[in-house]
Amino acid sequence: MMVSTHAAPPRRWRGEGVRALLWLSPWIIGVAVFFVYPLLSTVYFSFHRYDLFTLEFIGLDNYRYAFSDVRVLQSALNTLWLVVFMVPAQVLFALGVAQLLAKVKSGGGLLRTIFYLPSLVPTVAGTVAFVYLLNPATGPVNQVLAWFGITGPDWFGSAAWAKPSLTLLALWGAGNLIMIFLAALLDVPRHLYEAAEIDGAGAWRQFRSITLPMISPVLMFSAVTGVIYAVQYFTQAMIASRVASGATDSAGSTFTPGYPDGSLLTLPQHLFHTGFRDWSMGLACVHALLLFAVAMAFTLILLRQFSKAEVAS
Amino acid sequence: MRFAPLAAAGLLALSLTACTAGKEAPPSLGAQPRPTASGTGPAAAALPAATLELWHGFSTDVETKAFEEAVAGFTKKFPQIKVTLKKGIQDDQITQAIRGGKAPDVAASFTTDNVAQWCKSGAFQDLTPVIRQDGIDLGVLPAASRAYTEFEGKRCTMPLLADAYGLYYNKALMKGEQPPKTLSELTELTKKLTVRDADGTIKVAGFIPSFQYYENSPSHLGPVVGAKWYNDDGTSAIGSDPAWKQLLRWQKDLVDWYGYDNLEKFRKSLGEEWGAEHPFFEGKVAMILDGEWRNAMIANDPDAKDLDYGTAPLPVADDKPDLYGSGFTAGTVIGVPKGAAHPQHAWELVKHLTTDTESLVTLSNALRNVPTTKAAMEHPRLARDDNFATFLDIFAHPKTSTLPASVNSVFNQDAFSTFLTQWEKGAVKDLDAGLAEVDKRINDKLKLSGG
């Protein structure tokens, strides 16, 4: 007869374990239903040909197709561009504006309102307005540039300028981030600056040695949320693309996302199009897993970098 | 840990539930009582009272009112059946509702792109048995309309109203010229009617050849050269059909005559197709490819209603004069989704809306779309001015074609359009190799979709 070498946990501990599970159960159920189950389903469906109604196991075919699809590579690179350029630009811009606003003595309230207002504009309306403003032929921006002898670019009509144009749109709507940074900056104790000033530290030194370390949790928060937002970037890119192309859906005519030349095709858009326009849900699940992996990788890298920086400081 | 197997069992149960969701056997066509004949009187009363839900994509006041009137004709025949309408519905909402087990009784779609997928997956019920049961002769529908409403022998939708595509021309800008009948005449006239500023900027375009301009999609232009999308086995015929190359070379020559950059600058200055200022209304373009519905838009636009314009079939390839008079057609489709609560009642409504002459004429007169049956097209009450009659003739032409149903319809159009954008800007050096690549993309996707 085999005798277990493990001693049974004391009855008191077992009781506490059950109680802990009971208290944790809302969270556990939430995670199971809204995270684990969808994730496992996505993996499951990614091995199938699935049009929402019929299901057929096809092994790795969806993966093979996805990794040979030029549109996947193109959309992944576009998404990567947004992460690498748009997120830092938005964080730096918001931080810069917040720094200025923190120093403004009079009229600060009005300026804060002016910078915050664009973030209240509905996303679709703001994007449509931006495309009209930047229309190369009829938009006022290029007309104003022309007064100074500058030939404005084709903005959303040019593959080279389309993503920078989206970045401008992101800067314009950075009001929320500006307010978060402003609150963080105003929270830094004044006496630290006064002491540094007495020690002869200049503005840059004060910013590097006091401001940055003090607001680093907020910086980390904005960088991580910014990356996650950029990885999921969808509405602005799709609306800008559709409006700038002038294309429409009518009988025998469909809108191809990513105008111009696929430069505004982001991975979430490609995923949506594959799933809900092509009805290739299995393939869309592969895209979703790719998106998940990319978002996780970026988030982990950022968290690691920030924790390293925190240890160093 | 006792929790782990419990959690695993829970997840498995959830997975199984998800995998089988929406697969319960719904009532199917023929499972419910049906009248012995359609129409008023005791036969119609044979169906028990019910409330039907109909989802459609119409959204403007004029459209929804017209649709309500057409449905009112049905409820007059079947007073025991109440119909509730839900407007502005898109295809993905219909599919999601069917998948979620909350399908409407009847659903209509503006595009034909999803018909193949709906038929293949069984999302819409096959109407063949009830069509046969009721003795409906589908020969009253033009061949193209029959083609875009079925897939691989399954007729899961019926054509409600159709769109036909032709040429609109501004009589003042034409300066007495007759509309072109061949592509070379179109080229010649375009060059004659185009007006440029001193710096070469286009002021008035004769005809815009860009595939990116409004309705100039490959589907709409393919019929002018008799181009074929698919081989009999469903694979792409784009690379192997010389007609596409003929169209593309003609188009590129005209783009190059304008100068790609010049043409793009002009195109981008024109705004949206559905915007308040349409370039054709404003006299910026002399000839455009458009659908019959543009007639109604011109008539309803206070600034454009006095526009002196004419309509004609699209010009065709010089070596295929027999194609003249034909064009592209597609249109609104309607069917009974899987899971409809009252499928037999739903079929009676679909039948009424798609085969009842009075109903089709009423709807066509209100929406100014082409009615889909021969009887409705020849009905004396159908408003038939010259400009609208052009599209009735195009629709009825035996060589008028459509984009055949494919499970990858949207993908295939995207793949070709993406290539065409590169082609017209001059980024494609080898046309044959480029078209072969389009074929490959379409065929690879077809294989993945189990075609």
From TrEMBL, chain A:
Biological process GO annotation list?
transmembrane transport
Keywords, comma-separated and alphabetical: Cell membrane, Membrane, Sugar transport, Transmembrane, Transmembrane helix, Transport
Where is this protein found? Cell membrane
Highest taxon of source:
Bacteria
Task: Please tell me the species this chain comes from.
Answer: Nonomuraea rubra
Which SUPFAM superfamilies does the UniProt entry name for this protein?
Answer: MetI-like
Q: Does the keyword Transmembrane helix apply?
A: yes
Q: Is Lipoprotein one of the keywords?
A: no
The protein, known as: Multiple sugar transport system permease protein
| Pfam families for this protein | BPD_transp_1
TrEMBL record, chain B:
Q: Does the keyword 4Fe-4S apply?
A: no
Give the keywords, sorted: Signal, Sugar transport, Transport
A single GO BP term for this record reads: maltodextrin transmembrane transport
| Cellular component aspect of the GO annotation | ATP-binding cassette (ABC) transporter complex, substrate-binding subunit-containing
Q: Which InterPro entries match?
A: SBP (IPR006059)
Q: Pfam families recorded for this chain?
A: SBP_bac_1
Give the region (Disordered) as residue ranges: 24-43
- Domain of life here? Bacteria
List the Gene Ontology MF annotations in alphabetical order. maltose binding
- Signal peptide residues are 1-20
Q: Which PANTHER family match?
A: MALTOSE-BINDING PERIPLASMIC PROTEIN, MALTOSE_MALTODEXTRIN-BINDING PERIPLASMIC PROTEIN
Q: Which family does it belong to?
A: Belongs to the bacterial solute-binding protein 1 family.
This one is known as: Multiple sugar transport system substrate-binding protein
Organism, scientific name: Nonomuraea rubra
* Lineage, highest ranks first: Bacteria, Bacillati, Actinomycetota, Actinomycetes, Streptosporangiales
